[in-house]
Amino acid sequence: MSFKDLGLSDPILRALKKLDHSTPSEIQQKAIPLILEGNSIMASAQTGSGKTAGFVLPILEQLKDIQAPKSKNVNVLILAPTRELASQIQDNVMKYGTFMSKSSAAVFGGAKIFPQKNKLKSGVDILVATPGRLLDLVGQKAVFLDQVKILVLDEADRMLDMGFLQDIKKIINKLPSDKQSLMFSATFSAEIKNLAKDLSSELVEVMTSSSNETVESITQKVYAVDKETKPALLGHLINEYGWNQVLVFSRTKHGTEKIANKLKSYNIEAITIHGDKSQGARTRALKDFKSLKAQVLVATDVAARGIDIANLPFVVNFDLPAYPNDYVHRIGRTGRAGKEGIAVSFMCAEERGYLREINHLTKLALEPEIVEGFKPTFDPNKPKESNKPNKSKSKRFKKKTFETKKERSKSPRKPQKSFQTKNERTKSPRKPQKAK
Predict the structure, then answer these.
(1) For a Cys-Cys bond, which of 95, 105, 152, 318 suits 78, CB 3.0-4.6 Å?
(2) Residue 433: how many CB atoms within 10 A of its CB?
(3) Where are the alpha helices (DSSP H) in 39-187?
(4) Within this chain, do residues 77 and 196 fall inside the same structural domain, yes or no?
(5) Are 277 and 304 spatial neighbours (Cβ–Cβ below 8 Å)?
(6) Are 249 and 172 members of one domain?
(7) pLDDT digits (tens, 9 = 90+) for 34-83
């Protein structure tokens, strides 16, 4: 099947040819015809499967028959969880619409709001936004949502994880009831399905390969290592095997900086990206990483959402994620569009339970391996011991016995202490005070 067979017109086909996209992916084959027919859908697909094009392409096709929006209005609203993903989606809109005269803009926090307000003055065909910044703009009457024809929720699971549920509901309440709703995500939980009911009662569910499975083209390894020797192991792997472009995931912002500084001590050029960085700094970091000026990019989960680097060869989970769904998203940065990739995860003693959860979710049987010279001090295959105190070693207390009412009535009572009145206390002899 070709893109032409899906019903896309010549301007879009020319753009796809220019980008060397010849064969649609599974999610594109299933979603594009449904969207062109006007259906509202909830689509689940693996990270890196081409789901962004799965909604951008048919939206551009539909915009051919929709009039340009009025001032401060939009025809299509795409919500994304992070600024990186919002920018990435707009880049795709511009690439696929290069032979069309359709306007677009991306608005998100961490950047000055006034330039974003100026972009919206004339109205835009496609607005890509993060929920918080969009509500700010709506509150300042810089944009109106009552004329939106199509709503897209991309990475809906991540938006809920980040606490955007109430913001999303506020936005939905400002939209027309007859809009077309498209929900795309790598994973779908019960919460996501409940949100889908707020969007439309007639959503068509589109499923491809299991949303919780990882891409077959990714080689996955797990190395057992003590927490304090993780930086040395990372430096060893990068230098020993000549890894030239590595995306490293850290659980915390502080952790990203520590890892990068340690790698620099091994003569490895590393940069960071996380929520405390300004938008300009994050954009420069991504540019340097893509151009190979920096060998390693250390990122948090939130900041890395939307990073789309063609042929990224290596992903490293410096910390195993506490939520197994995040594992699927992380390693999905490599092995995109059928390309091969390698995903390496470090597991310390405290993270053994996380590996079990990942295996359970992905239906894999990943087993921890040991790198020569980095043998851990714990047994990788032994479950983590409980932190509860050992009862045999705990302090023993005498068992307290309780008397029945009948037994209490027979047992001699202790004499109760009598309390003197104020007058009695004045009459009673005082005890002689000790000489100082």
Answers:
(1) 152
(2) 6
(3) 51-63, 83-96, 113-120, 131-139, 156-161, 165-173
(4) yes
(5) no
(6) no
(7) 999 999 999 886 666 788 999 999 999 999 999 999 999 999 999 999 88
- One domain for residues 162 and 18: yes
Domain assignment present for residue 49? The answer is yes
Cα separation of 300 and 180, whole Å? Answer: 33
Percent helix, strand, coil in the chain, to 5, is 40, 15, 45
Contacting residues for 432 by C-beta, under 8 A, at least 6 apart = none
**296 and 161 together in one domain:** no
- Residue 189: which of 167, 152, 151, 160 has the closest Cα? 160
The domain in which residue 334 lies consists of 218-369
Domain shared by 269 and 321, yes or no:
yes
The burial class, CB within 10 Å (0-12 / 13-18 / 19+), for 257 is: middle
**415, part of any domain:** no
CA max distance for the chain: 114
Q: Alpha helices, DSSP H only, in 174-229?
A: 190-199
What would the pLDDT profile of 318-330 be if each residue is shown by its tens digit?
Answer: 999 988 878 888 8
CATH number of the domain enclosing 157: 3.40.50.300
> What digits encode the pLDDT tens for the residues 220-257?
999 999 999 999 999 999 999 999 999 999 999 999 99
